[in-house]
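Run log, item B.
One chain of 115 residues. Sequence copied directly from the ordering sheet:
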Amino acid sequence: MVVHITQDLMMSSNASAASRAAGHKFKFVASWERAALVIHENEVEVLIIDLQSEGLDIDELVEGLKDLAESNRPQTIAYAQHVEGALLEKANAAGFDKVMTRGQAHQALPELLKS
């Protein structure tokens, strides 16, 4: 399963199509709290994070991921608009598996989500 934290319906639609084309179930949620519940209840392989989601606290998200057993920790793909340099740098420093601009994520998700 792929879980996407976002409130952006266009990016969610793109991620959903890429996920389903790669054979994954897909769920989008608006917050880390909802994502954490889905992760605890399902086998989540990839967590896509829209860093510009309203109310998203990167530090809280990172701590939440660290609290998961390593076998339950999904691969993380984080993105933000290219003008959000400080936010992208913070995500890189936080240790997400992949950090990219929104445009890069839009183009790369089909390949990144292939089984």
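Observations after the first pass:
- The mean pLDDT is 95.
- The longest strand covers residues 75-80.
Flagged for discussion on Thursday.
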